[in-house]
Amino acid sequence: MPELDPQNSDNAESAPRVKDRLPFPPLYKSHILHCSYAHWHALYRSITPKARIIPLTPAFLEYLHEDGIVLPDDNAETLPRWSDSDSGIYSQDREAEEEDDDDDDALLDPSIHFLDLHIHIKTVIGELGGRVAPKLNWSAPKDATWMTGNSMACRTPSDIYLLLKSSDFITHDLEHAFDDCIDDPSASESVPKTLAEVPYTLVLRKYLELNPSLEFRCFVRDRTLIAITQRDLNHYNFLFPMVDQLRTLIQDFFASNLNPTFPDPDFVFDVYIPPPHKRVWLIDINPWAYRTDPLLFSWLELLGLELDLPAESEREAGGDDGIEHLPFIPKLRLVGRDDPEAYGFMTPQYSAHKLPKEVVDASLGGPGPLREFADRWKEVLGQAQQEQGGASEGEEEVANA
């Protein structure tokens, strides 16, 4: 649920002003919490892919916030043994370390601070077939898959930690989930008011090879499904003859499952419709807010769309205003062959979130290698500035000759 990518906005600097001008209803913190996976999964477990929800400990959240990337050794045959000394400091009890004179070169295994959670994650991966796709309350670390071979598939806890710690989307969940929100005056006292009160969870979904052409984003306003768009912005010719079928499937799915039970009248949900295109799977739910990417639509278009609906007072009273209201037919928008979006494959997805390989390699080695890389980088910049200065002096001498 991260903010829109600035690269995809018309003017990144004017984005806050555009957001303020759009006629969004108030965004309450309760709206964000209702879109948390753990909240809605309990309602829609039967229509979502297989997943497990794991509560996260303060120690693990602190690990996610730490700078640098230090990963545990998943290849170890047994877990390290830990002894509690009189000083109250946990020390690692490994014979190999006792024989090693250079203890300073050994990196501390971060999982010692959340060992029970680490073991539980490893167990859940096995229960879900050996490969999982992770996410936190709202976001999946899709912007960090370049760290793992452009795949969300994780086979070990370290694969999961690497994605989570490398992702700007995950950082948004941890630090900015309540941005632009206000407190709901009707919410109970038990509703979290700050991010420190949010019960963060790790969602591990059984990894499935989803066909991106069959993923769709759906927009609900005033409990009415108003628009549907492709999620993958490439042209797929086979989708066009299926427009009516896809729209009907999603409309029926929404009317039967989400409309009567989701607590908010305005929200956005993502679905997947695999072959033979007779069943719809719920993938995610997002807030009706500027931070949610409208893809082939614009928020101005979605907010300004006129709905021929009975007045709210009439709907609440169950009365008839004497006007025949036809069922609203949602717009379904696909990428055409000649649309500019059809050539999006030329720009790697989430490219704005990537780092040079040298930086990544250094960060994987912990603070030491990363510091050495920073020092070398300063030396290179210093040499470049000296050479540039020398070249400028030479140009001045030539000009004055």
What does this 3D model show about the protein?
The protein has 13 helices and ten strands. It has 401 residues and is α+β, with helices and mostly antiparallel strands. Strand 2 (82-84) and strand 3 (90-92) form a beta hairpin. The longest helix has 34 residues, at 367-400. The chain starts with 14 loop residues before the first helix and ends with a helix.
Strand content: 5-15%
Helix content: 25-40%
- Biggest sheet statistics: 5 strands, mixed
Spatial extent as radius of gyration: 26 Å
Shape: globular
Spatial gap, N to C terminus = 62 Å
Short description:
With 401 residues, the chain is α+β, with helices and mostly antiparallel strands.
List the helices and strands and how they pair.
Elements: H1 15-21, H2 29-34, H3 37-44, E1 51-55, H4 58-65, E2 82-84, E3 90-92, H5 95-99, H6 115-127, E4 132-135, H7 157-166, H8 168-175, E5 201-206, E6 215-221, E7 224-230, H9 243-258, E8 267-272, E9 281-287, H10 299-304, H11 312-317, E10 331-333, H12 357-364, H13 367-400
Helix pairs in contact: 12-13
